[in-house]
Design brief:
This protein has 494 residues and is mainly beta. It is built from 1 helix and 39 strands.
Length: 494
């Protein structure tokens, strides 16, 4: 075989290409991070506070490695500080340059294996402009600044207006009175007399919500309301006449667990079995919907930043921003959590199962869980100004007296008060707190009033067979108290 110079030169070229291909194939490329999110503890515009950044690594991070987080323009990060982390040990330092925050491990810990991590930063000031498509990026590096994983762009996160929180101008803007579901009333409880009764075709299973103009809002059972779906109804607070009625797309299973909530911007939130809705208070116009991806939404609570919190059949507590976008969700509990309360600092308290209370941060991470020696099922808890906890409870899930159990913030029982009548359904009623320190709870027959020490003062016969739901009293601006009873109507009591 004869080889020309042209042929030899071609072979040489092919050999060089083969060697180059072999060299390139041995090079290590950075992997992508997964599940990267940015969770502002407050979603309000221009608010400074904590942000949690969860992510999952594909590559181990050495004990002197780095995590690089980049924020979009408009967020002020110059004064950012390190708060805490999970998935890492040892110490760290923080450096900020422009919109880039670099966390450098100090070599005192161990290598962090691939897996779920999160970093909490403080003193991050949110954008001054609302939006639902903000993103950040996360990258991990070794000590020489070589990229390990990323940079990977986060999922979208929202910044919302400051006027979308609870309507505090309304006398009773949501079940359990306020942003924290604390049931605290500004009124002292007097011996009531009947003022009027609203009678309607719907069998209402939510306690009355009262707007700033006196309008009373109720959600009804689809079996008895017009149409085949949940009905949200508005009534005149003076005459009891129907003002408007709007339906959701789905049914409201266990309607008493899906109470309406009023927002400062004139909206009203309600949920059916799969979807969260925002309607206009004025005429019932539907403003937006949020599909939860789960069933049996319930226990609406609203945070100071306007975020909506609810429990669901996936055994998680979910948070949704006031613009209808997802904020975060907890890990799954062993059972569906009960209706949660939110403290003024954004901390969430979730009662259940049975005798446990779980404390949750505004980024949906669990802080702690404590249990008490009282073994009955717990309803929505109420918080007083000293962070004492009040829970409606029973010793049996059949027919039994209702009880109010007062615990301190560490979970130790202070006293137990017992109702005059029995309550014959499987859930427990929540208590209501009053400005003078007295409390009240409902059973099948009575509204029971107790003094601040837990002693019974009076038991008022409410005139109905209390059914199914966990409804506390509601109040309007004149101090009238309204209680839903088992015949689907409710009396307004001054």
């Amino acid at each position: 075989m004869y080889l020309t110079w042209h042929t030899i030169r071609r072979f040489r070229f092919l050999s060089i290409v083969a060697v180059a291909a072999l060299f390139l194939s041995s090079k290590t490329y950075a992997a992508a991070l997964t599940s990267v999110t940015v969770i502002p503890w407050s979603s309000d515009v221009s608010v400074s506070g904590k942000h949690t950044i969860p992510f999952i690594t594909a590559t181990s991070i050495p004990n002197n490695g780095k995590i690089v987080i980049t924020y979009p323009a408009g967020f002020t990060v110059l004064g950012a500080t390190f708060d805490s982390w999970s998935g890492f040990d040892g110490g760290q330092s923080i450096n900020v340059s422009g919109q880039v925050i670099t966390i450098t491990r100090d070599g005192t810990g161990t290598a962090s294996a691939a897996g779920a991590k999160n970093i909490i930063l403080n003193n991050i000031t949110n954008q001054a402009t609302t939006g639902s498509t903000y993103t950040g990026t996360v990258e991990t590096r070794d000590s020489s600044n070589a990229t390990l994983d990323g940079p990977t762009t986060s999922a979208n996160f929202s910044i919302t207006v400051t006027t979308d929180g609870l309507d505090t101008t309304a006398p009773w803007p949501k079940a359990f009175a306020d942003s924290g579901n604390t049931n605290r009333s500004q009124y002292s409880f007097g011996y009531p007399a009947l003022k009027f009764i609203i009678t309607d075709i719907c069998e209402f299973q939510t306690d009355p919500i009262v707007g700033a103009d006196g309008t009373i809002f109720l959600a009804g059972d689809p079996a008895s309301c017009p149409g085949t779906h949940t009905a949200l109804s508005a009534f005149d607070g003076t005459t009891g006449a129907l003002k408007w009625r709007s339906n959701t797309s789905g049914s409201m299973v266990f309607a008493y667990w899906k109470r309406p909530t009023l927002s400062r911007d004139g909206g009203i939130y309600v949920a059916d079995s799969t979807t969260l809705y925002k309607f206009a208070q004025s005429d019932g116009t539907q403003l937006w919907t949020y599909a939860s991806g789960t069933t049996s939404i319930g226990g609406l609570a609203i945070g100071s930043d306007g975020s909506l919190w609810f429990s669901a059949a996936d055994k998680k507590i979910h948070a949704v921003n006031s613009d209808g976008t997802a904020k975060c969700a907890t890990s799954a509990f062993s059972v569906v959590p009960n209706i949660q309360s939110i403290a003024s600092n954004g901390t969430v308290y979730a009662p259940g199962p049975l005798n446990s209370i779980t404390v949750i941060s505004p980024d949906c991470s669990v802080q702690s869980t404590f249990t008490t020696s009282f073994t009955s099922g717990y309803s929505t808890l109420a918080l007083d100004s000293s962070n004492n906890i009040y829970i409606g409870a029973r010793t049996a899930l059949g027919s039994d007296n209702m009880r109010i159990v007062k615990l301190n913030s560490s979970g130790s029982i202070q006293w137990t008060a017992t109702s005059s009548g029995v309550y014959s359904f499987s859930n427990s009623k929540p208590p209501a707190l009053f400005s003078d320190g007295s409390t009240a709870i409902i059973d099948n027959t009575y509204i029971n009033l107790f003094n601040p020490s837990g002693s019974l003062v009076t038991a008022y016969a409410h005139g109905g067979i209390d059914c199914c739901g966990a409804q506390p009293p509601s109040f309007d601006a004149s101090g009238n108290v309204m209680v839903l009873v088992g015949n689907g109507d409710f009396p307004a009591l001054p």
